[in-house]
Specification:
The chain has 5 helices and 5 strands, in the order βαβαβαβααβ. The chain has 141 residues and is an alpha/beta fold. It has a single domain, classed as HUPs (Rossmann fold), CATH 3.40.50.620. A 5-stranded parallel β-sheet has the order 3-2-1-4-5, with helices on both faces. Helix 1 runs parallel beside helix 2 and helix 3 runs parallel beside helix 5. It is globular and about 55 Å long. The mean pLDDT is 88.
Amino acid sequence: MKILVPIDGSARADLAVQYVLSQMSNWVSKPEIFLLNVQWKVVNSNVKFFIDPQTVQDYYREAGLQALAAARLLLDQAGLSYQYHIGVGTPAEGIAQYALEQGVSQIVMTQGGESNLQSLLLGSVTSRVLSLAPCPVLIVK
C-alpha cells in the first residue's frame, strides 16, 4: 500500500500524518509513505530577467522543506521511512499528478490550510483533489 500525505505547512496538515501513524497497527505490512508539498508558482517569466533561476529554485526548496519539517519530524520520531517531494505549481493538480505518477493507493489529507477568502476565490484545494485524484481520498478532520 502506498499512502500520499500532502502537506501545506499548516498545523492542520500534521493531523493527516498523525492519523496515518494511528492506523499503522491496522495494516498487515507497513505502507510506503509519501509526503508532498506543492509550492504555488510565484515566479513568472518576466521575473526571471531579474532573479537567477537557481535562486528561485532554492526559494521553492527552502519553503517546501520548512512546510514539511513538522510532518517529517513526526515520522522520524515514529521510526518510519518515507519519501518526500517538493513540487511547484497548482497544489490540487500537483497532488493528483504526483499520486498518479507514484501509483499511490490512497491520499490522506486534511481540509485546507487556506483562508476562507482564498478558498472562496481559488476554490478549496481539498475539493479539487477529490475531483482529480486517481485513487481514494481520505479527509481527516
